[in-house]
Amino acid sequence: MAQNFDRLTAKPTSRRFRWIAPAAGDQAADIEIRKAYGRSDVVIEIGCGVGWHSITYSRNHPEKLVIAIERTRDKFSRFKSRILSNSPMPNLIPVHGDALRLLPPHLEHLSIESVYILYPNPEPKAKAQRWIHMPFMDLLSKALSPTGRVVFATNVQNYADEILATAPLRGWNVSEDSRINITDNPDFQPRTHFERKYFLRGETLRHIELKKKGPA
Ligand SMILES: C[S@@+](CC[C@H](N)C(=O)[O-])C[C@H]1O[C@@H](n2cnc3c(N)ncnc32)[C@H](O)[C@@H]1O
């Protein structure tokens, strides 16, 4: 039987995972992302941090292919450790890198069901770096399946309000805007570390879903 090697440590591994080494960079990531071509069940998480949501989601949806992207080396490394301590998840593709650089060459080949952007940095002083204003969102829109959606979660109310105000001008319909807090939703189960922190602090969490507008 062929021996698998961990791409980060170059050590033999019996795991079924193949890692995308940061140094090997884009080429390895490209190979992994190409596995999603032609599939209709692709879910992408951008900025997955240490991977709590990606791992839980992959485990609960074995029929879907989840590409989880994190650009910070330290967080990706903790994501990797968490995967190793779980049972194998062949439907989870962990990618270390910048989604803005890695995804665009692939988007015309993908039919994406959901994109999760959970607790993005609010970038209060850099409008161009807030996701809803990025040209990248136009590319993403073209790569969504007809029923595909982009899910944002944030605890920053003016960040959420800006998404709601800007989305319709950028070709999106707002299909959901939920508010969650510990008083009204004591049974809510946080999906990420940031979400848990803000929820326990009593902050109001916003869960927003966008779908692309159909032809006029
Ligand atoms: C505030 S953290 C939230 C992490 C996680 N989603 C959570 O809720 O616990 C935002 C994360 O997005 C990552 N990130 C931001 N822009 C990114 C990009 N273009 N590609 C990949 N990761 C990105 C950051 O490195 C950071 O880990």
Task: Describe this structure as you would to a colleague.
- Helices cover 30% and strands 25% of the residues.
- It is of the alpha/beta class and 216 residues long.
- The chain has eight helices and nine strands.
- Bound molecules: S-adenosylmethionine.
- The site of S-adenosylmethionine (SAM) has 20 residues, from strand 4, helix 4 and helix 8.
Bound molecules: S-adenosylmethionine
The global form is: globular
The rounded Rg comes to 17 Å
Secondary-structure-derived class: alpha/beta
CATH topology: Rossmann fold
Order of helices and strands, N to C? EEHEHEHEHHEHEHEHE
Which regions have little confidence, pLDDT < 50, spanning 5+ residues? 17-24
Broad CATH class: Alpha Beta
Biggest sheet strand line-up = 5-4-3-6-7-9-8
Mean pLDDT reading: 90
- CATH architectural group: 3-Layer(aba) Sandwich
Identify the CATH homologous superfamily.
Vaccinia Virus protein VP39
Number of structural units classed as domains: 1
What about the largest sheet?
A: 7 strands, mixed
Head-to-tail CA distance between termini:
56 Å
Percentage of residues in helical conformation: 25-40%
Topology readout:
Elements: E1 4-5, E2 12-13, H1 26-34, E3 42-46, H2 52-60, E4 65-70, H3 73-84, E5 92-96, H4 99-102, H5 104-107, E6 112-118, H6 136-143, E7 144-154, H7 157-166, E8 172-180, H8 193-200, E9 205-212
Parallel strand pairs: 3-4, 3-6, 4-5, 6-7
Antiparallel strand pairs: 1-2, 7-9, 8-9
Bound molecules: S-adenosylmethionine.
Q: Which structural traits does this protein have?
A:
Rossmann fold, 8 helices, 30% helix, binds S-adenosylmethionine, alpha/beta
